[in-house]
Amino acid sequence: MAFSIVAKSNIFPVITLRNDNNGTWAEIYAFGALLNAFGIRGYDTSYNVIDGFTSPQDARDNITAGFKSARLSPFPCRVTGGRYSFEGHDYVLDKFFLGQEAIHGLLFDAPFTVTSKFAGEEEAFVTLEFDYEKSDEGYPFTFHSKVTYTLSKNDSLSISVEITNTGKNNMPLADGWHPYFTLGGSINDWQFEMNAGKMLEFDDRLVPTGNVVDSDLFLTSASIGSTFLDNSFVLDNNDKPACTLSNPANGLQLTITARENYPYLQVYTPPHRKSIAIENLSGAPNTFNNGIGLIIAKPGELYTFATVYTLHLSR
């Protein structure tokens, strides 16, 4: 078969999807259902474009240090003060705070279960699932989360998410991812282009003010240079790639295509300048309070989200 799967059990399952014909691979941790590696084989070396963890233990010990590749669900980024109101009730989140803000949802360290996997001539995939059962008093709802990674022949990795409200009441919902991408060297030397002519205006706490402003940042491919980004961009449409990132020095290129229900692109350039966070989001930061992109998930309803990462190596 063209594709294969290697499954190992450490402190949690680790699954590697491989295209044995060209050497493309993806490594997925059941811990948080996070993507720890996505790579392509060159002439004399291989490139992993995910700034991930060195081991399962490293992920468990340090997931909150940078939330690398974390699932952002049922809310992405920040909830101001960890407080929000929903359908006449006030809630206070307790999972994790950075300063005064609750951040990055409730599933980043969830013990997902591998429920299915397949390898054939055209693709390989693995599905992981988790049931959230009111573990945070500030989010007293129940839902089922299903994540499927599919490695395909065109050097692409598709990530699809299904969330079902398993409770008896409506619940607030938004979804997203927090991967850091690395193409070798410094991000200052990479080229970047986004399909976004607008962005959300932030206040000094990096919370949207409610205003949407025009942006000409990286509308055409340009060197990142010393540009600092910690912004939410509004994608123009989902018919074109959300963004393209490339390193002219080694010919490595990553294209991200947002599918259903990911209209926002959060981009962050960390101080070390060795990788860049590019986050597909269904809702804006603080969506539980500002309602930007907020989904009112009804009992029994299924909500889907998807994105595709595609690698290209020109030499």
Description of the molecule:
This protein is mainly beta and 315 residues long. The protein is 5% helix and 50% strand. It is built from two helices and 29 strands. It has helices spanning 56-66, 287-290; strands spanning 3-9, 13-19, 25-29, 34-41, 46-48, 70-72, 78-79, 83-86, 89-92, 97-98, 101-103, 113-119, 123-133, 142-152, 156-165, 171-173, 176-178, 180-181, 191-194, 198-202, 208-214, 222-223, 230-234, 243-247, 252-258, 264-268, 276-281, 295-297, 302-313. The strands form seven sheets. A nine-stranded antiparallel sheet has the order 12-13-14-15-29-25-24-19-22, with no helix packed on it. A six-stranded antiparallel sheet has the order 18-27-26-23-20-21, with no helix packed on it. A five-stranded antiparallel sheet has the order 1-2-3-4-5, with no helix packed on it. The longest helix is centred in the N-terminal third of the chain and has 11 residues, at 56-66. It is globular. The two termini are 26 Å apart. The model has no long low-confidence stretch (mean pLDDT 96).
